[in-house]
Amino acid sequence: MAASHRPGTHPWWRDAVIYQVYPRSFADGNGDGTGDLAGVRARLPYLAELGVDAVWFTPWYVSPLVDGGYDVTDYRAIDPAFGTLAEAEKLIAEAAGLGIRVIVDIVPNHVSDQHPWFRAALRAGPGSPERELFHFRPGRGEQGELPPNDWPSQFSGPTWTRVADGEWYLHLFTPEQPDLNWAHPAVRREHEDILHFWFRRGVAGVRIDSAALLVKDPALADFEEGVDPHPYIDRDELHDVYRSWRTIADAYGAVFVGEVWLPDAERFARYLRPDELHTAFNFNFLTCPWEAGRLRAAIDATLAEHAPVHAPATWVLCNHDVTRTVTRYGRADTSFDFATKAFGTPTDPALGTRRARAAALLTLALPGSVYLYQGEELGLPEAEVEPDRIQDPMHFRSGGTDPGRDGCRIPMPWDSREPWCGFGSDTEPWLPQPESWGDHAVDRQSTDPDSMLSLYRQALSLRRSHTGFGDGPLTWLPADNGVLAFARPQGLVCAVNLSDRPAALPTPGTPLLASGPLGAGGTLPPDTAVWLRTRPDAAPDTREK
After folding, report:
1. For residues 463, 468, 469 and 472, what is the CA-based torsion angle, rounded to 10 degrees?
2. What is the CA radius of gyration of the chain?
3. Is pLDDT above 60 for 182?
4. Cα–Cα distance measured from residue 360 to residue 460, given in angstroms and rounded to the nearest whole number
5. Taking burial as the number of CB atoms within 10 A of a residue's CB, which of 121, 390, 417, 539 is the most buried?
6. Rounded Cα gap, residues 169 and 159, in angstroms
7. Is 471 known to be catalytic?
């Protein structure tokens, strides 16, 4: 049974390993080509064996799926493509029976253009109370033919769309995702009620999408680079929203994780004050290249950001929006930037896999919690989807130059002997699987002690059973150039060689786990990581979980 490796009153979320499920692509239980809750329920034993503490589901609500479910029509119902509310409640209960908590996704910045509120706003017309729930404005120009302001989009393309009566509405993402007006009390009441709805059903936490974007400048003034405050990012009024939410979560013992992309460390930390969000995603680490100096700087900066507010750091290598780790680390440029995504970027899969294995041990040895995106434990590469099969709106809004995010959302390979690698039974998956997908399937990796899956299973087991891993102090150790080495409590050490030559281990010790074979005389080969136990008293944690 999966369980947090810290017993007693230690908050589980401070050092949990949280597995991200993208429901459309995890497992298809009814054979219609789309992943669903029945598929997830059938695979819960797999997640328990993997050793995760919680599962975060990207949106599973009723949605037209224009943006992968991040265009929500009804938060209190499950999209029929995924199942029913009753199935979700069973899933939450069954996961709890295996020691796995459930985290759901909330998208408070916007709703679907099919949401009842927005449809009513379109019918009601200019100046109506219904339109006050969104950002409707008359246009500029002699005939109102120009948008109300010049704000840039979070995707490519315009941020305003004109409706039949001549008014325009704001959408920082796609036209099918109109932004809500968070200055309106009804918007706040609705989302507080949504939190109660899911917490009452046993959900342990909520991930908040685009958490720094909700509140807009009331004047909707034109964008000016460098002007503070920003017209729609990280506005001070947001913190009152999250303080209210925290009161609700505390009543249920639930937690929040925010998607907060901010370059300013001090302002980032404000979201993690004791009366606001519990944790926030660490995008600095995620986007960092495979370079020792840059990674150490990212780790130091992350820990420094969190220290003043005593919040745990979070670590993630990949998610449903970014290039798969194996592919990214095999490229000449190992960083991630949405602006540089392009078709046909070459990669070295063997090199990327070695680095991804080492990165797994690095990430799991750091203080705080870890988010693991589905398929990372299988070493799945980024798939290059043919343009006529792409569904991601980022591709279309870029004029076809951006490959989009479908390549990291390809349906999971479960059984290499079955059609579509065991993802479903009767229908081709909603996104095509590459011919080589079966090579990564769970059935093959489960019996291979050297597979990526076996590495993750061993690492999660050790992380759970040794008290030195997870939340707590980190001390850097002297090491060769290009090597990251640090000590954790209880005599545990992690060393990662990011250079192109073998390196000496930073300290004597007994290897607990390595991402690849160690060299002659116990040296650490390039792109390899090892966990060491340097003291005999660094024994496994045998206390009751």
Report:
1. 160
2. 23
3. yes
4. 10
5. 121
6. 8
7. no
Contact in structure between 288 and 335 (CB atoms under 8 Å): yes
Give the tens place of pLDDT for each residue, 491-502: 999 999 999 999
Give the pair of three-digit tokens for residue 288.
Answer: 């960092």
Report how far residue 286's alpha carbon sits from residue 325's, in angstroms, rounded to the nearest whole number. 9
Is the pLDDT reported for residue 538 higher than 90?
A: no
Q: pLDDT by residue (tens digit) across 341-373?
A: 999 999 999 999 999 999 999 999 999 999 999
Is 259 considered catalytic here? yes
Three-state DSSP at 107 gives coil
1 CB neighbour count, 10 Å cutoff: 10
Long-range CB contacts for residues 269-272, cutoff 8 Å, separation at least 24: 269/305, 269/306, 269/308, 269/309, 269/311, 270/239, 271/211, 271/212, 271/239, 271/242, 272/306, 272/309, 272/311
Among 209, 234, 321, 402, the one annotated catalytic = 209
Question: What amino acid occupies position 55?
Answer: V
In angstroms, the CA 406 to CA 254 distance is 31
Cβ pair 346, 313 in contact under 8 A: no
Which of these is catalytic: 87, 105, 234, 259? 259
In tens, the pLDDT along 32-63 reads 999 999 999 999 999 999 999 999 999 999 99
* Residues 317 and 273: beta-carbon distance below 8 Å: no
Relative to beta strand 17-21, strand 369-373 is: parallel
